[in-house]
Amino acid sequence: MTEAVHWVLATKIKDGKYEDLVALMNEMVTATETDEPGTTHYEWFVNDGKDVCHVYERYESSAATMVHLGNFDAKFAKRFMGCLEPTGMTVYGNPDETVRKALATMGAVHMDFLGGFSR
What would you report as the CA-atom Rg of the chain, rounded to the nearest whole angstrom? Predict the structure, then answer.
């Protein structure tokens, strides 16, 4: 079993905010790649109508997850919430209680690891 924590965050893009979202996403991707070595995946996806966005994030551990969440809160949360309305969050792995509490505000549904492998 791995210590990795990962999730898919589903959001609705607010009307007229797509271009703002793209600029913010580029800034967030650069900052996360530069400042957070414990982030292993950080990928954004948008539907054809450009009104739904999913973000896939994977961290090597709960500690790495908390680094990201701290940076997000300090630098990006207000602008993120100005562009996006979260509609669901599914968390995979076995995050510690600190991470579970931090993600509770997003209405996170936790899926514990049952079996399988990752290469």
Answer: 14
